[in-house]
Specification:
Layout: E1 2-13, E2 18-30, E3 35-39, H1 46-54, E4 61-68, E5 72-75, H2 81-90, E6 92-95, H3 107-116, H4 122-135, H5 152-164, E7 170-174, H6 182-197, E8 201-205, H7 209-212, E9 218-221
Protein name: Phosphonate ABC transporter ATP-binding protein
GO molecular function: ATP binding; ATP hydrolysis activity; transmembrane transporter activity
InterPro entries: AAA+_ATPase, ABC_transporter-like_ATP-bd, ABC_transpr_LolD-like, P-loop_NTPase
């Protein structure tokens, strides 16, 4: 499903005339329907890998081959913006610790929109939205409110709900349980297990190793890249 080859991503700090090496020579493969956990110390580049796969970051070198259902085998590093948007809409989901949404859109509307993007009918979208919001224990009094007024945990649960309800072929998870209580973590785990059983391929970052136990088929350990502070 995913083959990462010799990936490198640098960040240039122009006013300091420095280049920071985020990841260097990263390679791994994830088979269809499997779950790869990525672990490592803070600053080792775990999130950079996920953002490179999702197309948020453009690596300096390397390749990310993805077996798309609609586009065939495609290198996400060289894919066009239109292809990346298509894959995000129909095949690849991403969950981070942070919620970034359009203003003046309610929590319920956000989930309904996510489901409609899959081609579902309006009736199905509304039914599925209610079920997933209930699953993640988002109080019904919040459904028609704007997420900007939610707590951190409520925003995170909404973020996860929007992603998993689309049943993506590939789901990227960047610390999705960071600010959740144990009951909410259990809900997330149940959703991940269900998606995996349905054939979704997953790549996830978790600092909670206990949460990962029994979920991941393989673990990739990151080593912190040495920063060359003198490189322009």
């Amino acid at each position: 499903m995913i083959q990462v080859e010799h990936l490198q991503k640098d960040f240039t700090i122009h006013h300091l005339n420095k280049t920071l090496h985020a990841i260097n020579d990263i390679s791994f493969t994830v088979e269809k329907g499997k779950f790869l956990g990525i672990v490592g110390k803070s600053g080792s580049g775990k999130s950079t890998i996920l953002k490179s796969i999702y197309g948020t970051y453009l690596p300096q070198s390397g390749a990310i081959y993805y077996d798309s259902e609609s586009l065939g085998r495609i290198n996400l590093v060289t894919a066009s913006p239109r292809e990346i948007v298509h894959l995000r809409k129909y095949e690849i989901g991403y969950v981070s610790q942070f919620l970034s949404v359009m203003p003046r859109t309610t929590a319920y509307e956000l989930v309904v929109q996510s489901i409609l993007e899959t081609g579902a009918s309006k009736n199905m979208a509304h039914n599925e939205a209610a079920l997933i919001l209930k699953h993640f224990d988002l109080d019904e009094t919040l459904w028609n409110n704007y997420p900007n007024y939610f707590s951190g945990g409520e925003k995170l649960r909404l973020n996860i709900a929007r992603a998993v309800v689309k049943k993506p072929r590939l789901l990227l998870l960047d610390e999705p349980t960071a600010s959740l209580d144990n009951a909410s973590k259990l809900k997330v785990r149940q959703s991940i297990e269900k998606l995996k059983a349905q054939g979704t391929t997953l790549i996830g970052i978790f600092h909670d190793l206990e949460f990962m136990e029994g979920l991941c088929d393989d673990v990739f350990t990151m080593q912190k890249v040495v920063v060359n502070a003198n490189e322009a």
